[in-house]
Amino acid sequence: MLENIQFIHPWFFLLLLLIPLALLYQFFFNKKGRIALKMPSLKSLEGHQSWRGRLRVLLPIFRTLAFAALVTALARPQSTLKEQEIKAEGVDISLVIDLSSSMLSRDFKPDRLEVSKRVASEFVTKREHDRIGLTVFSGEAYSQCPLTTDHRVVQEFLAGLKCGILEDGTAIGMGLGTAINRLKESEAKSKVVILLTDGVNNAGYIKPITAAQIAQEFEIKVYTIGVGTQGQALAPVSRRANGTFIFDLSTVEIDEALLTEISEMTGGKYFRATTAEGLERIYAEIDRLEKTEIEVTTLKRYSEEFHWFAMLGLIFLVLELILRYSVLRSLP
Description:
Layout: E1 5-7, H1 18-28, H2 51-55, H3 58-74, E2 77-89, E3 91-98, H4 112-126, E4 131-137, E5 141-148, H5 151-159, H6 172-183, E6 190-197, H7 208-217, E7 220-227, E8 232-239, E9 245-251, H8 256-266, E10 270-273, H9 276-289, E11 293-304, H10 306-324
Parallel strand pairs: 3-4, 3-6, 6-7, 7-10
Antiparallel strand pairs: 1-2, 2-11, 4-5, 8-9
Helix pairs in contact: 3-10, 4-5, 4-9, 6-7, 7-8
């Protein structure tokens, strides 16, 4: 709260220097006014102090507090209330993620899918003012989450993704087409698809290039990401009777020419991620390339607070006077 307080006349605080000066004067120069009572011995009074004597120490404290509070009131404190009006020209973004069984390959730790989910979720966190949706595909595709500004929901859907919920395969055209269907009616200034896959298109009834042409028609920019190491990786090659995967070394095949063509047709860019760190850098670059335009208007309102300090100073002063001239009254 204190960071919202400002003082219009702060030079009044120089008056507080009078407090230590008054204490010095009281200690060194004001001994003449003290009443001395000569007694043959004070031994019998050692350790005996009346309650009035104990409470008299409050009198200078109350007077000092009253003076400090009144000086603060003279400095004219104001509280500043800030209000921000944010007008954001957001970007509509559809994340398209491959759920084919090859995404369980272990060239990423623990596998490609888990790393892709984590990095995508971190990307969502950064896009505060954007609507984000989620589409998944393997041998077929469907929209997992519509465009929304509730990023918590998107992240929950991302966390729940797993291979095997769709027919196996890699239908890149279907995944892209489904995302475009969600974005085509958008009125956002910028519409973006981030398509992540680790394979070659081998399923679906929509050709990837046809989907790219549709994206071009609706001015949807497509960033494509090929995820997987160079060479061979430990990947699922078959399934046991109980449904678990059997892993063996397999050559990593990504249709980089196709992904590059899709991104270039739509004004996007193709990236290759061979490590988790590389994937993080790719999403960071996309985040930088697709900046949301934000207009922030700050309004300030001021509230006078001096009266609280003036009231506090008067309370301390009245208490000091009441005590001094009543129960703590000294001898004339």
